[in-house]
Each structure stands twice: as C-alpha cells, then as structure tokens.
Amino acid sequence: MSKxxxxxPLKDAVKYNWRALKTIYGTxxxxxxxxxxxxxxxxxxxxxxxxxxxxxxxxxxxxxxxxTLTSLVLWTIGSAALITLIQxxxxxxxxxxxxxxxIHISHIMSEKMRKMDxxxxxxxxxxxxxxxxxxxxxxxxWGMHRVTHNFNSIWSALFQIGGGIALTVSLFASKVPxxxxxYTVLNSPYLTAxxxxxxxxxxxxxxxxxxxxxxxxxxxxxxHNLGNRLFGYYGWFGKRQDNTVDARIYELADFCDKYALDKxxxxxxxxxFAKLAKGKMGLLQAASAVTATLxxxxxxxxxxxxGWAGAFGVGSITQYIGAIxxxxxxxxxxxxxxxxxxxxxIFLKQVFKFLDIPNSMYQGSLxxxxxxxxxxxxxxxxxxxxxxxxxxxxxxxxxxxFKVGERLAVVGRNGSGKTTFIKLxxxxxxxxxGEILLNGINIRKYDYENYMSVFSVVFQDxxxxxxxxxxxxxxxxxxxxxxxxxxxRDAGFEERLNTLKDGLDTFLYKEYEPEGIDVSGGxxxxxxxxxxxxxxxPFIILDEPTAALDPVAEAEIYSxxxxxxxxxxxxxxxxxxxxxxFCDKIAVFDExxxxxxxxxxxLVEETEGKYFELWNAQARYYNEEQQ
Length: 627
Hints:
Layout: H1 10-25, H2 29-61, H3 66-115, H4 118-121, H5 124-140, H6 144-173, H7 189-219, H8 221-234, H9 244-250, H10 252-260, H11 272-278, H12 280-308, H13 314-355, E1 377-385, E2 395-403, E3 407-411, H14 418-425, E4 433-438, E5 441-442, H15 448-452, E6 455-458, H16 469-474, H17 481-490, H18 494-497, H19 521-535, E7 539-543, H20 551-559, H21 561-565, E8 569-573, E9 585-590, E10 593-598, H22 600-604, H23 610-626
Parallel strand pairs: 3-8, 3-9, 6-7, 7-8
Antiparallel strand pairs: 1-2, 1-4, 4-5, 9-10
C-alpha cells in the first residue's frame, strides 16, 4: 500500500465494515444480541456508583442524617456486589465467545478456500493475497478480527454517552444564585452553549489527532508486514529443527545478526517507523495527549467554579466531573473507532477480494454410476490445455483411452505435461480444448464431488498430518481399524506398525502430542499409499510413489503391486523407466504431447523414439554406478 495513497471514501468504508459485520454475525444473531447486552450493561453500571457516591458526599456535607447515610452506603455496597456478580458472569461468557470468534472468522476464510475452484487455489496470486491478509492480521491486527473490536467499543461508548448525558444535564441547568455577584454570568445561555461547544470540539480533536497518527501504520502496512516476516523468519531461525544442521556447519546464526542487530531495521531505533514516530506521527500522538489533558482541565475549571459559586453541592461536583469525563472518553472512543474503521476498511477490501473470487467451474449434476463390475473407461479426446495467464500449451491434442484393470505408466522429462495430464483427469482443471469422457460422458456433466470420489491419488507433494496414524490412513476420525491395518501392511508399513505401542492410535510427529513419532520420507510415502488404498476408488493414481523408498522397499512395492491394486486402474507417473516395465501400457510425453504409446518391449525397439532415448540414458547411468 503506497504511503501517498488517499484514504478510502467514508461511504465505501461504511459499506465494507457493514458487510464484515453481516459476514461475521450473519449466522450468529443470538450471539450478537447477547454481546450487545453485555457491553450495554458494562457501559451503564459505572454511573450507578457515580450517582450513589455523589449522594453520600452531599449527605455528609449537609444534614449528615445517620439513617440516610446508612441506607445510601448499603445501597452502594449491594448494587456494587450485584453488578460485580452479573458482570463476572457476562465476562466469563464473553471470553468464551471471543475465543470462539477467532475460530469462527478463521472458519469463514478456510471454508472459502475449501470450496474454491482449484484453478484459483493453484493460482500464485491467490496465495499472495491470502498471505497479505494473514500478515495484516498478525502484524498490525487489521482485517475481520478488528471489526468486532470496533463494533464492541462503539456500542459500549454509545450507552456511556447516554448515561453521561443523563447525569450532566442538571450541570448546565443549575443556576448560580444572584448573591454570587459576577459569577452569575455562568447562568448565561450563550456562555453555557459556548462551553458545551468548546468541550465537544476539544473532545473531537484528541481522537482526530490519534487517528491521523494511526493512519501512517495503515498506509505503510506493506513495510510493516515485510519487517514482521523478516523478524518471524530470522528471529526464530535457530529454533527450527530443520535448520540446526546447516546452522551449525555453516555458522548461519551469524548470518541472522544482520537482521537481529541492524538498527536501521523496520522496527529498530533508526528504522522507518522510528523516524515516523520522531516526526509527524509522534507529533500527532503528542497533540492527542495534550488535547485530552486540556479537556480535563476545562471540565474541572467549569464544574469547580460553578460549584464554588453555589450552583450545587460537593457531591454534585463529583457526579458531574465523573460523568463528563466518562462522556468525553466515550465520545473520543467513537471518533477514534470510526477513524480506525475507516483505516481498517482498506484491509477489509482485500479480505472481500478473496471471499468474492467466483467459482466459474461448471459443477454438473449426473451421478457417477457405482458399478459392481467396476467397468469404467476414460478417454481423452483431442485435449489441449493452457494454464491461466499463459499463452503456451501445457498439453496439445492429447488422445488416449484406457479401461479399468489396466496399468498405465506416464513417463517423460520434467515439464513434458505428465502432472498436467493427471490434473485434468482428476478435473482439478478443465481442458482448454477437447473433452475428457468417463464411460462416454463428458466429465463436466458429472457432479463434481461425486466424480472426484472415483479417484485415489498419491501426489508427489502429499501431506501427512500431525494426527493418529489410523486417522491419517482413513482421512477421518471414525474408521474401520482392520481395514486401515490391512492397507498399511499392503503398502509395506507392516514392520514399523508392529513396533508401535499404540498401533493405529500412535500420533505422527510431535506438534500436538509429545509422545508422537517421527517418520522417514519413505515411511510417510507408504502411509500415503495406504491412504490411497483405504479410499478403495476405481482409479488409483501414483505420482512417483517410490521416490523416497530405498531399493529393497521399492522392490517390495513393485512385487506386490498387482495384489495391492487389484482390479482397479492404476496410472503411474515416474522418472524411473525401469519401474514401468510391469505396466500394461506406457504413454511417453514430450513437450505436452503423447509422442509414443505401447508396452515396454515395443517401445524400446523403436530406436529413434523418445522412450528409447530415455531408457538408454538411464541404463547408462545405472551401468556406470555398478562399475
């Protein structure tokens, strides 16, 4: 965000904040009503103590009636106890709800991500936007969470203003007696109006200066976020376990000193925000503090002079000063929060830019037929594809057909189109040209979620979660334990499984369970393969499924592969051509096209073909290794 960027128009700021409130509380109206009641109660109850204290002082300074004093004291103690009890109950409820609110807002964002078209999820611009939103929240506290704080503060301040007005009306209505001589000028309606306007003007100035100072943080959020990222990375560099070896060997800790000890860093004593604090931003904050003090002096002077002149007693002086001070503080809060909401609206605009990303992918309505004989066939018919924003074809005029039970290997150099082929098959993307058919029907016509259910995939960048082993395999908290164990054994995880004291209930990694176990890359790959088998889908897609396995474990997987896959269709992506020999067919990709198609023996005989070239290149490498 540019430093010189103009503030958002007030009309637009109101629109974004109002929409944010509806988004947050749209499904939680009861919570909103209870929260409003809590803040209204908290705002009004201090005036009870102010009014009763004023009555006690009046009684002490005048008639001193013991019965009246006793009654007032009892009322003060009783009301304070009751207010404290109710407030404690409301605060306890509020704290629980406030904790839930963080989860609720996070859920809004994650649900959008979950339901978003994959084409947008896969777009780097989307991830950059999400990262910016998160940095705005963690670094400066901007965004959706700030809306609830602004709303609570304004709602509470409105009630405090109402209570303050109720207790201060008599201040301006009380007359100085004629015997006070020159002080009777205080009875002039013109002077009273001037005093009220002066108080309101001073009250307005303090938050105005504060908002103008805070504006610098909003306008320089990009610098703030960058500094926060650098601190988050280099400040905790030494505590990250995956950095420890390199940090020790190459003395990388010294490298971090540049960011830890540099006084010109964004947050350091000679950094950008320090310069702002010494300049206009600091002067504006100082002006805000001075103005607030000036208001306090004005209130004390006016109330005390009028009391001195005989307009009211000592108790009323306490009441008026307390009430006006609270009124002014609440008025300043509203002005300050409105300015803060206007600054925050710029960040809300980014949030809604994310939430408003449209789902343009056609979802379809047909149900994929659940065939007992698993008789499915897939056909790519003249399929071409360009990634969004690219003019180059990732796939060009691809036509291929395969049926259930077949083993298809997809091979080729990096960037040849293998992964794109799989993304289109799983309908993570739609073809730019041509069509993909399942049992003769364009896959766009199938219900999207239902179509996805026929595929089990082990992607090369699969994720194992910090959850119990069984839940990782099943992808669910409730699952068939015998089936999960069988899938793990079929995937080659049996030996490690037998060593686990808690079996399927063993936590993986230590983020949530100190007794959790760490697994190697190869073991994680076996767990991912077991997850694929557990889903029991007609199509299994394996993207480099043995890349992290040692040769013995790899041979074990291949020898059992037919038993593992059973009657399912297996599509196998690999760079190791030696591991493709067990497949029925091999599709050779090059520059986005299928340049060869057949089994290993037939392809290796085509000495001018791409497969022969790749095969010999790898065979030469293996021969050199063995020499």
